[in-house]
Amino acid sequence: MEAITSCERDRPCPISFLPCPGDCVFSEVMQSARHGIVVLDTERETLYFANREALAMLAEARVPAQYGEILEAFLEGSESGGAAPSRPDRVSRRFGDRLLGFSRYGVGRFRWVFFRDISESARLESIAEAIEISNSFAHVFAAVRHEIGNPINSVKMALSVLRKNLERFERETVLDYLDHSLADLGRVEDLLASLRSLSFYDDLKLEPLLVDEWMREFALLAQRGFHERGIALEFAAGAPGVMARVDSRALQQILVNLVANAAEAAAERQRPEIRIETCRREALVEIRVIDNGSGIRPELADQMFRPFFTTKEQGTGLGLVIVRRLLARMNGLVELSSLRGEGTTALVTLPEAAE
């Protein structure tokens, strides 16, 4: 099937907006593209342009190469069908056994659609995701079995010894065994509490939040607790009037975890200090939690977000996992940067909310 190009001298070019010169370099470039390109003229309701790749994929997807059918297949329900959007939007849609991924946007009366067949890549991604989920579950279950099994075995052993020797053990010895058993059960309790936090915020309610105002209140509460421990906490507001779209409960859990980590790292110093900073960068809100601890060893940096990995004696290894999961559900990120002997910075990045 021949490619469709409706370039005529009496019609403006949808790329340059100048009168059509006849021999079109843009058309030649687009004809050689490895992905489909179609251009619709919404004023005349015609298919203005379609390259060879587009026609081949439309035929495979059983979408007729006609204005109405393409409009319905690719532009229905988008702002591209009406007023021209300020930026392309990206969508995928299944046509029979084919999955097409496409970007669409408008320029004046023209609507552009760029698309490609992503059926095979989607299939491979699904397989990879299934393998990754399977591996993750296997790792998590093995870690849970280990983390819960060890203290339970310890308690079982202690109670067995007590049962056999209760009549001849002195009271202090019995109490010592009981104290160790309670400590082991406390470890299990802490682990279960952390696991509960993984699903506690499943139903997030995202709302615009004035970041500096909220952070100032958070810092005041944190300062009271840290002052008793001799840890100085300072807040530097750098995003006045800027809002992020977040769940405030989840954000509090995130900051509690990060500040607790910072406090534990800084406690090694003679004058432990934590600094929290905010700023706006482009369309993002950044929150930094900075400590003056000894930093993270380079060989451990890549493992800090692994479930159950911890460098603390009483840690569960789930704090940063919870932080990353909650931020991902709010379209945010967390990154750690560290210098040995100078401290660690946890950078939280959140999308700015529209006013």
Structure description:
The structure is a single chain. This protein has 355 residues and is of the alpha+beta class. It is 43% helix and 24% strand. It contains nine helices and 13 strands. The protein has helices spanning 25-31, 52-60, 67-75, 119-165, 171-200, 211-228, 248-266, 298-301, 319-329; strands at residues 4-5, 36-41, 46-50, 89-95, 98-107, 110-117, 207-210, 232-236, 243-246, 273-281, 284-291, 333-339, 343-351. The strands form three sheets. Strands 1-3-2-6-5-4 form a six-stranded antiparallel β-sheet, with helices on both faces. It has a five-stranded mixed β-sheet with strand order 8-10-11-13-12, with helices on one face. A two-stranded antiparallel ribbon has the order 7-9. Strand 10 (273-281) and strand 11 form a beta hairpin. Helix 4 packs antiparallel against helix 5 (171-200) and helix 7 packs antiparallel against helix 9 (319-329). The longest helix is centred in the middle third of the chain and has 47 residues, at 119-165. The radius of gyration is 30 Å and the shape is elongated. 24% of the residues are buried.
List the helices and strands and how they pair.
Elements: E1 4-5, H1 25-31, E2 36-41, E3 46-50, H2 52-60, H3 67-75, E4 89-95, E5 98-107, E6 110-117, H4 119-165, H5 171-200, E7 207-210, H6 211-228, E8 232-236, E9 243-246, H7 248-266, E10 273-281, E11 284-291, H8 298-301, H9 319-329, E12 333-339, E13 343-351
Parallel strand pairs: 8-10
Antiparallel strand pairs: 1-3, 2-3, 2-6, 4-5, 5-6, 7-9, 10-11, 11-13, 12-13
Helix pairs in contact: 4-5, 7-9
